[in-house]
Amino acid sequence: MTNQDNRRLVRFVLLSALFSIAGCGEKEAPKPQPRSSGGMTSVAEAPRRVAASELKLHPKVQFPEDRLPESPEMAQAIADLAAAIAGGSADKLESMVAPSDRLVLNMLVSSGEWKRRSDAVKVVRVCVVNQAPDAPMQVGFGVEDAGGAFLMGWSGTPQGDSWTFSNMPIEPRLASASAGLDGAELKLLALPVGLPAADKSMKPAEEKKEGVEEKKKKPKPAPASRPGGLGPDRF
Q1: What is the third-level CATH fold of 59-181?
Q2: CA spacing 20 to 30 A to 88: which of 28, 32, 117, 186?
Q3: Cα–Cα distance measured from residue 174 to residue 185, given in angstroms and rounded to the nearest whole number
Q4: Per-residue pLDDT tens for 134-149?
């Protein structure tokens, strides 16, 4: 091979290398592929709202779709609370409510009022569900019997894997049927904050004597009831 042939070969190799480099620069960079795990492509999914058909509902409980919370655990806790009331399950309700409500429930069970009232329940409908950041969840049940329906309010807070509910003393709300209470306001009852001042014209001896006589005449009070909640008159 002559020197001229050698120079041609070198030029060919250099030109080939140059075009190869230029061609690589013109190619489209490969698009990044989504990460896979076990052969399945990982795709972020938006949280799905639970459906009423997925909940364990008592036959007497109505849970409209538009009141279902996003949390399946919260939705089932509400359904379980409604089921305990609708089915008259005092043991189940006792395990879900705050200590103060357990005392009222035990009084109702001991007096026989719990069975009498719960047997009369026809429908327990979820009429209100209120959720706010950093605040207990609120739920309002429309409890219906032969005489109509009334609104019962509860507030709930998560406790680990379960929920604890406290009865809310709300203003009485009545309707002919439980559906008539849909969207009702859970307005807290305005409770008295103090008692009237004593008559200062009364002498201490007379005040003491009158107090003793009044105590003898005064009958033993019945367990206190809370409108829209647990109590001897209507739950």
Answers
A1: Nuclear Transport Factor 2; Chain: A, (3.10.450)
A2: 186
A3: 12
A4: 899 999 999 999 999 9
